[in-house]
Design a protein that fits this description.
Length: 141
Amino acid sequence: MEMTFSIIKPDGVRRNLVGSILGMMESAGLRIVTTKMIHMSRREAEQFYAVHKERPFFGELVEFMCSGPVVVSALEAPNAVVKYRELMGATDPKKADKGTIRAVHALSIGENTVHGSDSKENAAIELGFFFSGTELVNRAG
Ligand code: GDP
């Protein structure tokens, strides 16, 4: 059993897509271990996306991620990291496979509705950034 970390980004929360996106996760076999709504500070968004610090879109990305509330979740399944990346679809919604969250809901390459960890190592780091051990008691494995 594996866990991954997900964010429903501000554009998804703003457009009232939380229920339908959590539903897509559950339908794909990703169990919701825990979930909560938060509003990231600029500092938190900068820290979370620190790997992208040198990219030209970093400022825009940080601005967007703290522009409104987001829904963070821990998801569990066998191969959860890869499974959720497949469900999200490509970063650019124009390139995302049909039926993926980004193909269905994303507005642009920046406002692309969801984040998902890209490796098991990053999943552990990102889960630890937003959740305490006591919030993850519902995990199976
Ligand atoms: P992901 O793993 O599919 O989310 O993609 P990346 O790790 O490459 O990028 C992280 C996030 O930065 C993406 O989900 C987008 O929100 C944002 N991003 C990536 N490329 C661009 C871009 O060219 N322009 C803007 N504005 N944002 C981007």
